[in-house]
Amino acid sequence: MTADQADEVMAEYLLKGGKMLAKSCKVCGYPLFEYKGETQCVICPRVAPEEPLPEPEPPAPAPEPGRAPAPASREVQGEAAAEIERTIVHLCERIRTDQRPDECLTLMKAVERGARALARLGQR
């Protein structure tokens, strides 16, 4: 899996309500996620092949034009935005201390994608 593909997977889980943790996978080094009450790596298979990782749920239908999203939707978006902001801060801290240029580039791309996700949440 390329770094871009890994970034896409992580961004999808963040947008679907997954929580990126400050712990890294011991196999691939990417951050672990809490998703549907389970801590897991969303990049490498950490469970038996007959038990695949859960797929992100499809997005909720968009509100009708001219209608504001439901209050619960705003609350979830606010929580997602706060989690993305915390994740961006954590990634920036890792960038400051990591001596590997390739890893720094990967982390910087993840920060960029997180910023784009925040912008998209702000537009809703």
Automatic annotation (TrEMBL):
Q: Where is this region: Disordered?
A: 48-80
**Pfam families hit by this protein:** Auto_anti-p27 (PF06677)
InterPro entries named among the record's database cross-references? SSSCA1 (IPR009563), UPF0148_domain (IPR051888)
Where along the chain is composition biased (Pro residues)? 55-68
Protein name in the entry: Sjogrens syndrome scleroderma autoantigen 1
